[in-house]
Description:
- The protein is of the alpha+beta class.
- Helices cover 39% and strands 12% of the residues.
- Among the domains are: 12-209, Aldehyde Ferredoxin Oxidoreductase,  A, domain 1 (4-Layer Sandwich), CATH 3.60.9; 253-432, Aldehyde Ferredoxin Oxidoreductase Protein, subunit A, domain 2, CATH 1.10.569.
- Helix 19 crosses helix 22 and helix 19 packs across helix 24.
- The structure holds iron/sulfur cluster.
- The site of iron/sulfur cluster has 13 residues, from helix 20.
Amino acid sequence: MSPFPYTGYAGKYLRVNLTTKDISIYDLPEEWAELYLGGNGIGTKILWDEVPPEVDPLSPENKLILATGPLCGGPMPNSSRVEFIAKSPLTGIYGDSNAGGCLGPELKFAGYDLVIFEGHSSSPVYLLIKDDLVELRDASHLWGLGGYETETWLQQELHDPQVKTVVIGPAGENLVRYAAIMVSFSRHAARSGMGAVMGSKNLKAIAVRGTRGIHLHDPIGLRDYSYKLHQILRKNEFFTGVKSFGTPGLVSLMNPMGRFPTKNFQYGSFEGFKEISGETLKQEHFVRDIACFDCPIGCDKTYSYVGEDNQEVKTFSVEYETLNSLGAGVLNRDLSTVLKGNVICDDLGMDTMSAGRAISFAMELAEKGILSTAEWDGLDLSWGNAHTILELLRRIAFKEGFLGNLLAEGAARAAKILGRNADRYAMHVKGQDISAQDGRAQQSMGLAHVTSSRGADHLKAFPVIDETGYPSEGVRRYGEKYMPELIDPLATRYKAFIVKDGEDFGAIVDSSGNCKSGGTFVMSEIYWKEQAKAIHLMTGMEIDEEKLKIIGERIYNLQRSYNAIHGISKSDDVLPWRMTQVPSPSGNAKGSICHLEIMLPQYYTLRGWDSDTGTPTTETLKRLGLEAIVDKLNESFRSGSGAQVRAALGWAEPYTGPVEDEL
Ligand code: SF4
């Protein structure tokens, strides 16, 4: 094979078979880069090729792909992100999760664009990557340890405080379906249960150290262009706010909109929001800013609180989502309980969003009398009970007792296990819990949750453009012609368009190694044109805005097709009844429901998906160069194999029955 033709890539990837302990180094096929770019795109391609529908996500046949993109490790602002891709144990369909920090650049500096893990080790191991040295090592002594202790131990064992770590905690070992991966102490790949995939393989950790550089196509041009974008970002009107407060700053913005889910989505505003706001968090607990590799923003923070025995406890990445899921979602206005819960989730290794939603689900079942007091395992399941919140998080991670075992499955599966009308109170789409965005208060976000390829999710389309109604970002991206409806959160017009555009662009950002919270989505300064130029300067690839749009569309259609061979169809593109049948009681959204019936058909038309099935048509797949997958997709429909897989996915069907008694 000829040398890899593009700079910016390492040009090599690793395949690690945990069953046989074989480790192989391969040349990165150039068509992977040309057709799928990197990270999320290449990971999707591998999942399609190597993990068929019949594979159980927690079996050795599932694969975990750790992947970087071409911008990762270069001088472009916010170019640090890595992707973890696998079939999700939570949803049973396509899954991925993304993390920042310095891991991605380090892997590239070690000489690898991606690592594919397959099989299952008979005993706990970790993978050490140190440039040419790549080996599996015994991790029996690490099994059972929390994330912080494991990372500290690895740095000490390897005598290297600079080593970048990827670890799971007990939740991943115990196969909690929303177990997270912890990346170098402060960052997390938390969604879709990627930590449980590591646990199922007996892979406790990955330690990476790289000392090589990356070749650049046009170093001077890239330096000048990156400098220019750094300067532009610093002048953006949102820069100071994002830098000062990070995502917690959103609490005070979202609450008056009625977009801040409260009491398991019964309300969209929380009376106690000030007590858990970004302003209060900063004033009372801020220690210092943290930034990922090459990021001028530094949206992440270290916070501290006084723990047991008057000891100072530090915690990181306290995000808007966590302030909601462990705050308003469970009707808790005590900020220190949120911080303590954040530490438990990080150390034991769980997604704070799904963990919090599982607890609010249980609290509502208790309120409605669906869970009898005998099933409360000695806890008080009253809303906002701090002891219960923290103790349940621990019991879930260790799968202790009836509730710990039940809630470790996630709300949607727990609802199916329980029966008893519990499905009414599981706030999910395709098995994944809905994050802190109420589609009644932001129509585009409601649509984004149902069209996301990994189940309910705000980050696939990330339609921040109409969140607050600020016109500047909308005009910067799309010009004046869609105003004012495009930026009106309650209007449905143009929302199918911005969701599709966001999903395609998001696929590119997640494949290039850039960050969605930085200049791409939140500030819209590094959009299609700028991404294309940066990728060209970095790699030498002849790429422009139009070619990049096709790649983004290709990736998203492949993810949808992957879900389609698992039997996912239009009938799964639904929100919980609370968002489509019950008018919002809160804030600016008062009286509003989410109008999927208007937006979804428009979205299918824009996508070129069949309006009856919600599946990419043969014509669309051929236009995107995906003709090779058409037969497999059609065969899945013809044989009914997809429908069989769908029937066994294990989460409760979305509740669509009468709701009068709930109004
Ligand atoms: S904006 Fe925040 S999450 Fe994104 S790269 Fe910068 S510090 Fe990391």
